[in-house]
Structures are given as C-alpha cells and as structure tokens.
Amino acid sequence: MSITATELKTNLGKYLLLSATEDIYITKNGKIISKLTNPFQERIDTAKSLFGILPNSASLEEAKKDRIDKI
C-alpha cells in the first residue's frame, strides 16, 4: 500500500495497525521516502512456510532423541 506523508500524519493509528499485516510505503512529492513494516514479518513468513512439512507421526520426544543421538 502506498500513502502520502500527509495521510500518514492524519491517520497514524490506522496505518500502524495495517503495518502489522502489510508494508506501507510513504510518499512525499510523488516519491517513496519511507516504508512502515512489521519487524517480525520475515519470521512470521518463515514460520508459515514450515507448517505442514513434518509428518503427523512426528513427536517431540523422537526429535529430542534424534538430536541427542547425533551429539
């Protein structure tokens, strides 16, 4: 989403909430001058990409045992 600096000043709270889910590009005189973003978005995207890669039969105990066996 792209907004003007004036729009950001007018509705800061709204854009702070929106920045939790999407990047907000702030423009001034038609040029992008800044980006408002969630600092944890990269972690969230990484975590989402990992969901479903483990088989349903995997267990925490087995994973711990495998790690200990490799040491």
Polypeptide structure, described:
There is one protein chain. With 71 residues, the protein is an alpha+beta fold. The chain has a domain at 1-40: YefM-like fold (3-Layer(aba) Sandwich), CATH 3.40.1620. It is 48% helix and 20% strand. It has four helices and three strands; from the N terminus they run βααββαα. The protein has helices at 5-10, 12-18, 41-50, 60-70, and strands at residues 2-4, 24-28, 31-36. A three-stranded mixed beta sheet has the order 1-2-3. Strand 2 and strand 3 form a beta hairpin. The longest helix is centred in the last third of the chain and has 11 residues, at 60-70. The radius of gyration is 21 Å and the shape is rod-shaped. The protein starts with a strand and ends with a helix. The relative contact order is 0.12.
Brief summary:
With 71 residues, the protein is an alpha+beta fold.
List keywords for this structure.
71 residues; 4 helices; three-stranded mixed β-sheet; single chain
Helix content estimate: 40-55%
The average pLDDT value, as a whole number, equals 85
End-to-end separation in angstroms reads 48 Å
What fold name goes in the CATH topology slot of the domain at 1-40? YefM-like fold
How many β strands by DSSP?
3
Question: What layout of secondary structure does this protein have?
Answer:
Blueprint: E1 2-4, H1 5-10, H2 12-18, E2 24-28, E3 31-36, H3 41-50, H4 60-70
Parallel strand pairs: 1-2
Antiparallel strand pairs: 2-3
